Amino acid sequence: MARTAANGKAAPAPAQRRPGVREQAVIASRSNLLRAATRIFAKHGFAGGRVGQISKAAKSYDRMIYYYFGSKEGLYIAVIEDMYRRMDEAESRLDLDASQPVESLKEVIRFVWRYYCKNPEFVTLLNNENLHQGKHISKLATARQYSSQAISLVQGLIEAGAAQGVFRTDVAARDVYLMIAAMGYFYQSNRFTLTSFLGENLETPEALAHWESFMIDAVLRAVAPGKPMVNGAG
């Protein structure tokens, strides 16, 4: 919401300090290392990704990795945080209308699904981190912050829909969020094996559009008013 001055007119935004040349170089150098590390870790995993590979891909030096991130593990954790931050920033740009909870929830579902599709390295890195049993993400202090924001977004829409009588009142936003994430994540993380297993290409535009529609239909059915949930199950 824009700030207003005493005369009722919009107050001017506070002047932002522009980073100097040296600071810009530092930001660019660190960003280049993060991007390179994302590609290398997504391809080779934490164990297989080498510091030398990353610095070479970033056209930097090994010592800069230790300078900015402290260690290879510090860099890997920073990559995970950067992934969540970028998804959170993209999600914050959604134009949602609480007075239209059904359409807004559809937008959230589309966003999550399409973000997974457009950022396959996100899914790959999460797969790798799960192989490590969440060893590194557990050291990320902001992980809970990002999940809380995503669930709060769904919570607001669920409450608005319940108030209008279009969503059930006994559904947890956490469960709805997990349902959306699970359907999108499983499809993307297993698309190659499922393509062979099912004998159909799951990466065609038609297949992707079909699954998006299925996700939307499944979630809306789950939150629609109807039979009360019993012991946490619908």
- The overall average pLDDT, rounded, is 85
Order of helices and strands: HHHHHHHHHH
Largest sheet: none
| Name given to the CATH architecture of the largest domain | Orthogonal Bundle
Name the poorly predicted regions.
1-15
Account of the protein in words:
With 234 residues, the protein is an all-alpha fold. Residues 1-15 have low confidence and may be disordered. α3 crosses α4, α7 crosses α8 and α8 runs antiparallel to α10. The protein is built from 10 helices and no strands. The protein has 2 domains: 20-70, Homeodomain-like (Arc Repressor Mutant, subunit A); 78-223, Tetracycline Repressor, domain 2 (Orthogonal Bundle), CATH 1.10.357.
Which properties best describe this structure?
Tetracycline Repressor, domain 2, disordered N terminus, 2 domains, 234 residues, 68% helix, mainly alpha, 10 helices, Arc Repressor Mutant, subunit A, 0% strand
Quick take:
The protein has 234 residues and is mainly alpha-helical. The protein contains ten helices and no strands.
What is the element layout, followed by pairings?
Elements: H1 21-48, H2 51-57, H3 62-69, H4 72-92, H5 101-118, H6 120-131, H7 143-164, H8 173-189, H9 191-198, H10 205-223
Helix pairs in contact: 1-2, 1-4, 1-6, 3-4, 4-7, 5-7, 5-8, 5-10, 7-8, 8-10
